[in-house]
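[step 3/7] fold_predict: job queued, chain A
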Amino acid sequence: MKIGIMITPDERVKKKSQELVQWLNCQKVETFIQHSNAPSLNLSKDTLTPIPEDLSYVFVLGGDGTFLNAVRWIGKREIPVVGIKFGRIGFLCETTEDKLIPLAESILAKQYIIEKRMRLKATLERNGQKRSTQYVLNDVVINKGTLARLANIKTFIDDHDLTTYKADGLIVSTPTGSTAYSLAAGGPVIHPAISAIMMTPICPFTLTNRPLIIPDIAKIKIQLVQDSTDILVTFDGQTGVSITDQDMLHIEKADYPVHMIKKPDNNYFDVLKTKLRWSGGR
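[step 4/7] structure written:
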């Protein structure tokens, strides 16, 4: 067995990863360390080492950003992944650093369940030519730059003209991503078992432009209105690129879900109460 471990450049994380490696080696388990990427606006830049073919699991030591980076590293592979929180919120992380070794023991003993989390496939085209295809666990975000006025985002669902959002931006998210940027922009929390895609405008000019939940079989097409400038599209907050009215963005459900390791005794609603500090939260 070989386990991949993705870590952030943090001394506390490095120290804990060394402890995990030593413990796994005592269990006759090989390890492969991968350092996480910093977010980049260069789609062609990727400093991650290609993921080994023989990994059984991936452990992620860090926060949600590191977890999203690990998901990009895993790509289309069906490798189970688990997050260990070192950050502040950690919606995607299964446990905290002090419970890392007990979690590893449970995983090696096969005492866990797998949750398949839907991803989105985002294809960016310019003049009919594909620029990039990205897979995201949380969201695709169209955002205006620092000096830009309102973004005018023409949006179609299954080739039907939905509306032109006049807003600071638009978030297209999965149920997993509903507790990320979309939540901060006023979107609802969607249970990850629900098959849906959510569209949340960011500070819309028209107050009747509210978050919209559509079925996961729908296909979204987005294009900026002519003369739109200083607009970015970002993928899971990990990478992104500038776009213009010459670009067309296609978003749909991906064929490759993320296989997230979950402990049987971790209840989703308890996680919500804890992370969002609702009454009754621990």
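[step 5/7] annotate
The helical segments are 11-26, 64-74, 100-108, 181-184, 268-276.
The chain has a mean pLDDT of 92.
exit 0
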